[in-house]
Amino acid sequence: MENKITMDIDPEEFFVHTYKRSGAPIVRGAGMYLYDTDGKEYLDFGAGISVNALGHAHPVLQEALKSQAELIIHTSNLYYSKAQIDFAIKLVKHSFATKVFFCNSGTEANEGAIKFARKRGARISAQKFHVLSFSESFHGRTYGALSATAQPKFQTGFGPLPDGFHYSPFNDIECARLTLDKYDFAAIIVEPLQAEGGVNIADTEFLKFLREYATERSIALIYDEIQCGTGRCGSLWCYEQTGIVPDIMTLAKPIGGGMPLGVVLCTDETASCLSPGDHGTTFGGNPVACALGSHIIDIVSDSVFLKKVQTNGNYLKTKLEGLMKKYPSIEGIRGLGLLLGVRFKDDPGALVERCKDNGLLVVKANMNTIRFIPPLIVGLEHIDKAVEIFDNVLASMQK
Ligand SMILES: *Cc1c(COP(=O)(O)O)cnc(C)c1O
User: Is 225 a pocket residue for ligand 1 (Cβ < 6 Å)?
Assistant: First the structure.
C-alpha cells in the first residue's frame, strides 16, 4: 500500500481524541526552533512540556544516542547495563538519595513512589496506607498517580479510584494538619513548584511543616520534581532552594534527554522495604535513555549552566512583568528560573493558539495560566523575540 498520509487528510481521523491539536505536523528541530511540514518556524518556549532541556538536535545527545544504539538498545532489568549503572551513580552523587529505581515516565515514577511508600508503611501497620496530596497538583494519569492528582477534571469518569487518597489545600498548614491527624498516612506527595496546576510555588513554611510531620509519624515525604527538577528552577533540584529534603523524589520529563525515562530516588530507609519481585518494569532504565540521562546530569548540574538559567529566568520574568502594566488582563507573573507562568483573568487558550500562528510555542497550565518553559539553553535574544511576539499577540487581541 502506498503511503497515503498526506496533509490533505485530517490526522485527527486516526487518533483517539485525547489531545486538542491542529496545524501542520512537526518534522524537525534545531536548538530553540521547530519546523513543520510547511517549513514554518516556531520559537519553542514549551520544550515538549519541559522536556527538551538542551533544545532540539543537541550534538552531545545525538552523539550519545548513536553510540549507545551501536552498543546495545535494550537489556531488560534481569541484567545490569553499563549505561544504567553510570547514570545511577551520577544521580546518587548529585542528590540526597542513596538508591534509584528506573522506569519510563512521570506517572510511572509516581506509581513507584506510592508503592514504595505503602510498602514502607506496611512494615509499621496494615492501616498505614493513606496518601495525602494537594489541590491543583498533577502527578500523572495512571490509577495511583491519578488518584493523587487532586483535580476533579482529570478523575471524572474514571472511577472507582483506589482507596486511601486524601486531599488538602496547597500551602495551607492547618488544613493539612487536620487531615493528617485523621488517618494513618504512608505518604505525602507534593510538587515543590506546581507546574500543570498553574505555576504555584510551595511555601517554605508549608514544606517545613510537611517535613516535620512526616518525620514524626514515619510518613514518606515524596517530592514530585518531574517538571520543576533537573535544572529548570535554577538549581539542579528544586528542593535545594529551601533545603527541605524529601524521603523520595520522582523525576521524568527532561531527565532522559527526550527519551522516555522516569526515576524514583530514595534513601536506604525506603529501599530496604523492597525485595526482588516487589516492583518492576521491562523497559525501565533503558540503556539509551540512561546514556542520554548521564549527559543531561553532567551538563545541567554545572554551576555556570545553572547560574545562566537563573539570570535568563530573571530576565524573562522582568520582561513579562513589564507586560503587566500594558495589559490589565494579566494578573501576575509567577514561578522560578525558567518555569514561569503568566496568570490571566480569563482562559488564555485562544492566546496560546495565536502565539503558535505567530511562530511562538507556549503551553497552558490549568485554566488561567500560560507557561513559558523554554529549553534551558535559551539565550537573551530568544527571550527578546518571544516576548515581542507575545506582546504583539496580546496587542492584537485587545483590539
Ligand atoms: C508531567 C508530569 C507528570 C506525569 O508525567 P508523564 O511522563 O506524563 O506520565 C507527573 N508529575 C508532574 C509534576 C508532571 O509535570
Answer: no
CA atoms within 13 A on the CB side of 6: 4
Does the Cβ of 247 fall within 6 Å of ligand 1? no
The model's pLDDT over 138-153, given as tens digits with 9 standing for 90+, comes to 999 999 999 999 999 9
Give the helix ranges, DSSP H, for 232-372. Answer: 268-271, 287-300, 303-326, 349-357
The letter for the amino acid at 115 is K
Rounded to 5°, the CA angle 101-106-109 comes to 30
pLDDT by residue (tens digit) across 7-44? 578 888 899 999 998 889 999 999 999 999 999 999 99
Determine the Cα–Cα distance for residues 393 and 232; give it in Å rounded to an integer.
26
Task: State in Å: Cα 224 to ligand 1 middle.
Answer: 8
- Supply 154's cell numbers: 482529570
Residue spans of alpha helices (H) in the chain? 47-50, 59-71, 82-93, 106-124, 143-148, 152-155, 173-182, 204-216, 268-271, 287-300, 303-326, 349-357, 380-398
Q: pTM for this one?
A: 0.97
Mean pLDDT to the nearest integer, 46-65: 98
C-alpha of residue 8 to centroid of ligand 1, in Å: 33
What ligand 1 atom has the least distance to the C-alpha of 49? 1
Q: Is 325 helix (H, G, I), strand (E, B) or coil?
A: helix
Q: In which region does residue 354 sit, left (phi positive, over 0), alpha (psi from -120 to 50) or beta (all else)?
A: alpha
DSSP 260: -
- Residue 199 in contact with ligand 1 by CB distance below 6 A: no
DSSP letter for 294, please.
H
Q: Is 105 in the pocket of ligand 1 (CB under 6 A)?
A: yes
